[in-house]
Request: fold
Amino acid sequence: MHSIGIIGGTGYTGKKLIQYLTLHPFIKDFQIYAKTTAGENLHEIFPDLDGYVDNLQIKSIEDISYEHDLYFIALPHGEALKYVPILTSKDKYVIDLGGDYRLDFEELYIQWYKYTHTSPYLLKEKVYGLADHPSTNYTEIKLISNPGCYPTAVLLSLLPIIPDFSDKIISVSCIAYSGTSGAGKSSRADLLLSEMYGNVKAYNINDHKHEPEILQQLYKNGFHSPFSFTPHLLPSARGIYTTSSIHLSEEIKKENIEEIYKSVYQSPFIRLRNNPPELQWVIDSNFCDISISLKGKVLIVTAAIDNLVKGASGQAVQNMNKLFGWDETSGILPARRKELKYVSVHS
Reply:
């Protein structure tokens, strides 16, 4: 049984971590650390958790205990840099849900996140935790960088075809959509209900900090073609939806593509669909639903995830499970689901 520390546990992703850890069969206890809410009781912040979770008192982020086995860090960009080096130096396991350790190079981090990186040596030591992809290695590591929400959906859509077809890919264009919770709890006028209701808009075109993260992982797997990424805001609180158009130099049989995806994804959290997925199928779940459409030399892959779960806390708990060698569904899926073998779901 393990003890867990949640640093920054009173935001959206922190709440989901609390819910999963409460149900986890191998977690004996957890403690929440925060800044502005330190000293408050959990039920004051999340009244809906009353009856599900003990009414823990939130401890100050300045008084972190080093007695926990693993720490989840759910802090704004730049803040994890204050804690990760200390924790790893004390031989603790860390899963960072922010962007401070996702990129491999200090220069890229400075360019895209606008902070000075105070522990660049850890950029090479961390593991990028795309939990459902078989290339992720969990042996002899202490720091897992949890992928961003957009990169999770985009990479799970594209990575299977890169090794076999990179030389046939002319270009890739990805159009992505996110619910407003992806911006966190901070108040912003452009995210108000009166601004977003009935509205859709593109933002950070050619300038989204998740783009270098996506490209970094694609390049590692052999991708070398032009790529564009255009994010949009949806008039909803949750969800990520991506449509990736891959232009090919020659035609490929659809059954060959489908076999590759089935072969790569043995994860219980990847569902291959015959029809394009819908956000409502994945909200409040750790599933990623993927659909493939091929016409001539154009392959279109659509994917849907919950940005707070598969794009954050659910994948973080999945990474913890794989790190410790537990069933990767522990605490995430009901126990009765653990006995089911992976089957592709066809709509």
About this structure: The chain has two domains: 2-148+310-334, 150-306. Residues 336-347 have pLDDT under 50 and may be disordered.
